[in-house]
């Protein structure tokens, strides 16, 4: 893997190049390689102006999902390969320069790892085609130890094409010492008890079942940890849950993919917890907007069209911008957010790069 530093420059924007002290965020984008992409791209993103500047790149194969360590000096990126070379990679990150350097990698022992989460003690991957969840110790210097444990997903959903083998799509640390994983092909959410002192997971049971054929994909928690929101890929519905002690209790289902394209993708909650956004693909692609009401329940307030295949997106910490990785349009779209209404407006400040699929901001160190 080869690092490459580029001249600091503005990317596809007509706004001035100035930035305000304290408002520049470190941002890393993961891409699919093989069509001109180098792999990982580091940017500075100004959350006051919405202006992005490229800082550096690192050659990594198919880094389709990544997660920063809390110290902001390490990140972990999957190599989503559909064979035995699938890995999780440890990358050193310099917040001063934006440079990235390869540290080490470990085999996931599961094909197509598509999600990674870390709390600094362990790193967890959801291996889509492998149908498994892999556990890796994070060593003191930020490198990864070999996989210590793997848990299998299940099948049983009615879709004979997309649920015919196990798929794990997402894994999340819950706010209270549990880990949850979306068991796509069995239409359920798995729960694991997590012992942080030992860095170990043990099966706890099934947090919840969802309607057969839903294909649960991504799960997020509300800022207060009392509610969770699940985007199901095949049904296109969001399920709202009350959450406590590793268990989920459904309180509402609401449609996000009104084109019924079976391409529900990502889901996020605004930093203030007042709005939920979900991306849908394949037809009428875009971001569906919801307002959060009492008890965490949702009211749909609109749909914002995006470029082709909005696989994932993120929201700036100050809540002012929402950035969408439009994989097949070869760009990241930058939308401004109205914090009062939740509505989005395209700023026309696209960040052009090949096959973007994951956007993460570096935590403040």
Automatic annotation (TrEMBL):
Top-level lineage group: Bacteria
One protein family per Pfam: Lactonase
Keywords of the record: Carbohydrate metabolism, Glucose metabolism, Signal
Any Gene Ontology biological process: glucose metabolic process
Keyword Signal: yes
UniProt GO molecular function: 6-phosphogluconolactonase activity
Cross-referenced InterPro entries: Cycloisomerase_2, Haem_d1_sf, Lactonase_7-beta_prop, WD40/YVTN_repeat-like_dom_sf
Signal sequence extent: 1-21
GO-annotated cellular components: cytosol
PANTHER family tied to this protein: 6-PHOSPHOGLUCONOLACTONASE, 6-PHOSPHOGLUCONOLACTONASE-RELATED
Family under the similarity heading: Belongs to the cycloisomerase 2 family.
Name the record gives this protein: 6-phosphogluconolactonase
Species: Prevotella multiformis DSM 16608
